[in-house]
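Reproducibility note. Readers wishing to regenerate the assembly model reported in the main text can use the exact inputs given here. Chain order matters: entities are listed in the order in which they were concatenated for prediction.
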Amino acid sequence: MHNGLMIEVADLVKDYASYRALHNLTFTVRRGEIVGLLGRNGAGKSSTMRILSCFMPATSGQARVAGYDVFSQADEVRRRIGYMPENNPLYHDMRVREYLKYRARLKGLSRRQSRGRVDAVMEQCSLTEVSRKLIGHLSKGYKQRVGLADALVHDPELIILDEPTIGLDPNQIRIVRSLIKSLAEQHTVLLSTHILPEVEMTCTRVLIMEQGQILADDTPENLQNHMNPEGQVRAEIAGPYEQLSQWLADWPSIAGYELVPGEGEYFLVSLTPKPGMDIRAEVFGYCQANGWMLRELSRARFSLEDIFVQVTGPKREEEY
Amino acid sequence: MQGFLTLVRREIGGYFNSFTGYVVLAVVLLLIGLSFAEIVSALNGQPSSLPVTQLYYQTYYFWLILLLASPVITMRSFALEKDLGTFETLMTAPVSDRQVVGAKFIGALIFYVIIFQPLLICVLVLRYFGGAQGAFDYGLLASTGLGILLLGCLYMSMGVFASSLTRSQVTAAMISFAFGLSLFVLSFASATQTGETGTIREMLGVINLRDHMEAFAAGIIDTRAVILQLSLTAMFLFLTLRVVESRRWK
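Running the prediction on these inputs yields the following structure tokens for the assembly.
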């Protein structure tokens, strides 16, 4: 059919009256990926999504979805996209089932198809028990799922979600997240967020955006490794100081260590392993063999938060 | 086509899902009832040679309904979508801008036709009690209906346009009320501008909606009126389309 790319964006520029929101934005998304678009407010995430969903055109540049141009073949693109805008707008005066049916018909499904699809997405999003309720009376978590169901109802190839978990409580966030993850098998997903752990948990790839450009493009793990190639290991061990330092000094797997007295008879040990080594099991094994107490053993992980600050620059952060 | 019909259904459904739809229906029903009672009691006192339809349009109830109801009917069409944010989900569905504007207009127009249905009941009552006297010429009823429909087209398109300009329903209603009232008041301007000669007076005479409506009610279909109202409708719909498209070049 085509080259396996779901989204191809090249040199995309979007000018608003007073400023440029997108500066020659270029990226691609392959079929089946869950890509997280990460960036602070105003970084251009929503503009990108609005262009991809054919809500508004770009000033210049190219954008293709499933091989169709979003400017000249907007109808084809719209049929293939399920889009949930920011703040998940819904008609509050409609009932859940009625709304989904309306959306399905609007998206060109026949009466028969729409009946089947509406039932299917209500099942998928666990909406069956509220199908007759007014949308305006639903909790935010349910509303969010109605929005997702709407995005899914015509079984689109690409699902674009603008901040799908904003304003939800932790429980609801978990439900929505697992729902998004379950979509991965059949759909390509592009979601935006400024909540970093979300990307870590749901996405197979992260695009970090800042001022209308892509600053980083990688898997969450690679970004981790990139930021923190050694993966510092921390341990708290209670043992005789001499033996401990002797052991650490002679250990070939580590590039460096630090040993400082901690609480009581415990020592705080920081280890820098040689690249590509995971030494945590060995630390545990050695302590066990010597009968030392071990009460903490962890590998320092940079959160995406740190990565984000590092990539986008802490200076600009202070402006907020 | 399916998209268009789905949208029209949603529009009409929206009126009946909301409180405003029923309020408009109730108020219009009251006003129609009042006007009907007034005409009947007047005719009781003194028979008239004019057809009932024409008598009806000499009272100002019709204009009151038109001027008050049309802003309320149309205020939600785009303003509510923009306010809720559903404008975005709507415009990213596989339907064209043209279809959306058309559906908003047709939906409002159908609701407008619905609120005038009680008039038919009035006619039936008169027919039942008044016998088959002159007032019940079908041609006359048809031309009156056409007059109501044409004014409806004009005022609905005006209201939909006003609604597309803003995200506040109240503002939309005020704008369309201002438009509607000005257009109506111009009808009187032609009468007061007797001093003026030539073009201005002639022009004011052409846009005299009140005279037009009276002509329709008397059974006269004046092509000037038809063309004026249809072209104004087309203009407002075109302007609405431009406003809806404006998100593309903003």
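We highlight two features of this model. Residues 2-248 of chain B form one domain. The mean pLDDT of chain B is 87.
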